[in-house]
Amino acid sequence: MLKLSQSCLLLLSVLLVGCGTQGTRSGGGFTSISPEEAPFDYKGDDYAKHLGAYEAQFKRPNQWLTGSDGQYYFAFFDASGQSTGLTTNQLTQASQVVKSSLLARPYAVATFFIPSGDQQLIRRLLKQQKGLLTPAYKLTAEREIIPDIDRTTRLFHEYRNNYGLRLVSLKNTLKYHVRFVASVESQCPTRASEGITSCVMQSWMLSNSLSNIFNTDNPYNVALLNRLLNQEWPKLGYILLNDQPLVESPAVVNMKFANSSRSMKQATPAKRVQEIKPYLNRSRWDIVLVKNADQTRRELADKMTEASAYCEVKLLPLEALDQYNLATAPSIGVREKAKAYTDRIAQQFCGKVIQQLAR
Asked: Which region is the signal sequence (predicted)?
């Protein structure tokens, strides 16, 4: 275990129970974390500065703000899961808590972003066209990435029944997942192909120079996804992409079709944790637009979320730890607990804003 500095100790030991967030369901929370689980050595002054970057948004929650690149809608949640708007005094107090020793009141920030000029288009798509919900994901005991069937099903019914979205069936969500895993395997990402059977075969069949043609920074093969798009969903207008930080990262090679299926990549759980941990840092959904340039084919951009609208919820202490002290940032288990908490806020916050846009 890391030795803790008395002057820089940060223990994320908050008990988030009975989530009473406005618009969220009551239920399980972010269970308390012992010092053994959270050996954080962190400079409180840095975190205070990071909090300061949110000051303008803290003062104006629950309204659309215009930035240089688009429109933002913010909401903030305190340690108990209650929606909050912070005054300057409260923000100062939050900083002082960090400086003293214990962060007893971490804040979560929820953001909905729409790129400049896209708001009317997003409104029209959500009102008039069909969408596809991609799976939400979770980790197995071996730290592989698999679909979270329960959470995906809850999201599907919430968005279709409560928020009025015209989503294609969950059977199509499964089709997308199967094709997505195949697209990752076929891509053989440069930085993460070790241990993927098809990538080993590719390097055996082709010279290194030719093999490099197939390697890009994109961890999935968008051509396979576009083929499925045109075969199965010729009238699809958008995709609600779950867990974007993970599925557009090199760590996606740790994904597999289902818990009972064979792993795409052979690796130890510890190795997978190192690959996955940097991307298990927030809850985020993207509204990916399906382009139709020539009226005959539907196309996704090579990086699906490069210019997408998105909704995300992140725990500010976790964000600050990752930014300033990644070496002593929370373990994968702590991240799973934090993400379960932000997922619950995101399900309702994102849905409410989408409902507002689709009216």
From this structure: 1-19
**E-assigned strand segments in the chain:** 9-10, 40-41, 64-66, 70-77, 83-84, 108-115, 130-133, 137-139, 145-147, 166-167, 236-242, 283-289, 309-315
Between 25-34, 61-70, 198-207, the lowest mean confidence (pLDDT) is in 25-34
| DSSP character at residue 68 | S
Q: How confident is the model at residue 68 (pLDDT cuts 50, 70, 90)?
A: confident
DSSP string across 243-270: -HHHHTSGGGGGB-SSTTSPPSB---HH
Pull the structure tokens for residue 117. Answer: 């000029």
Residue 80, SS3 per DSSP: coil
Does the CA dihedral 258-259-262-268 come out positive or negative?
Answer: positive
The Cα 9–Cα 4 span in angstroms is 6
Task: HSE, CB side, 13 Å, CA atoms: give it for residue 270.
Answer: 0
CA gyration radius for the chain? 21
What the block records as the tokens of 115 is: 């790129």
Give the angle subtended at the CA of 112 by the CAs of 108 and 117, to the nearest 5°. 155
Residue (of 259, 284, 126, 257) closest to 182 by Cα position: 257
Q: Does residue 319 sit in helix, strand or coil? A: helix
What pLDDT score was predicted for residue 331?
84
pLDDT tens-digit series, residues 320-354: 677 666 566 778 988 898 898 899 899 989 999 99
Q: Is the pLDDT of residue 5 over 70?
A: no
Place of tokens 């929650």: 61
Q: Does the pLDDT value for residue 270 go beyond 70?
A: yes
| 23 pLDDT more than 60 | no
49 or 314: which leads in pLDDT: 314
DSSP code per residue over 100-146: HS------EEEEEEEETT-HHHHHHHHHHSEEEEPPPEEE-TT--EE
pTM of the model: 0.78
Query: Distance (Å, rounded) from C-alpha 8 to C-alpha 208?
Result: 49
Q: Tell me the residue ranges of DSSP E strands in 170-279.
A: 236-242
Q: Rounded CA gap, 324 and 115, in Å?
A: 28
